[in-house]
Amino acid sequence: MSSTLVVHHLRVSQSESIVWLCEELGIDYKLVCHDRDQATMLAPDAYKELSPLRTAPVIEDVDTYTPNPEHIRLAESQACVEWICRKHGQGRLLNKPWDANWKEWLFWWHFTHGSFQPVCQMLLLASSLPSDHPGLKIANSRLSHYLSLINKRLGESKFLVGDELTAADIMIIFPLTTQRAFVPIDLTEYPNILRYLKEIGERPAYQKAFEKAETTLKPLLDANPKSPYSI
């Protein structure tokens, strides 16, 4: 069986992770790029219509070699990553229960969308509040704690789970990089995270993903990157 994988990338969004994943796996895919609405900085209506969530990412997978082709359209980052790894990557980058680092992988695989990215979104929403507002204090406290956890982990291993890149790394890079175009986060106090980002930025697949998917945005890998975007 063969299929055509289509990745709908909303520029300056977490769908960059899906493009990077495809490049890391070395699989064939069609990339369709969409620009944000310059007035609102949100996804354009055409992109919103692709997904019930109305957000990035969105992938389509069309079986091209059966009498009745099956057309799959899928949203939600973790679901897209798992679909691609299982169907197109022969399970690569997804650790198995019998792997030595299974417990660690399972934690970090869910950490980004379960804990880290929600607090980044909380910080974005709370950024207009007075500095002494309880909501802003909670968001900053959780963010510092989570960054310390990540930094500690990366002082123990090259990647989040041992010395090999996994899907857990694919998930966490966006909030550590491009999301800081919208939520400024100072990483000066986290040297292990900065080492990690530098090495990710040197990966040919990561570089190729940006070359294909973005026009002006460069990877935001520094402690305090200068972002051309704000909302």
Walk me through what this model shows.
The protein is an alpha+beta fold and 231 residues long. It has 2 domains: 3-87, Glutaredoxin, CATH 3.40.30; 102-202, Glutathione S-transferase Yfyf (Class Pi), Chain A, domain 2. The protein is 44% helix and 10% strand. It contains 8 helices and 4 strands; from the N terminus they run E-H-E-H-E-E-H-H-H-H-H-H. Strands 2-1-3-4 form a 4-stranded mixed sheet. A hairpin with a 7-residue loop joins strand 3 and strand 4 (71-75). Helix 1 (16-25) packs parallel to helix 3. The longest helix is centred in the middle third of the chain and has 25 residues, at 102-126. The chain is globular. The model has no long low-confidence stretch (mean pLDDT 92).
Characterize this entry briefly.
This is GST C-terminal domain-containing protein. By secondary structure, this protein is α+β, with helices and mostly antiparallel strands.
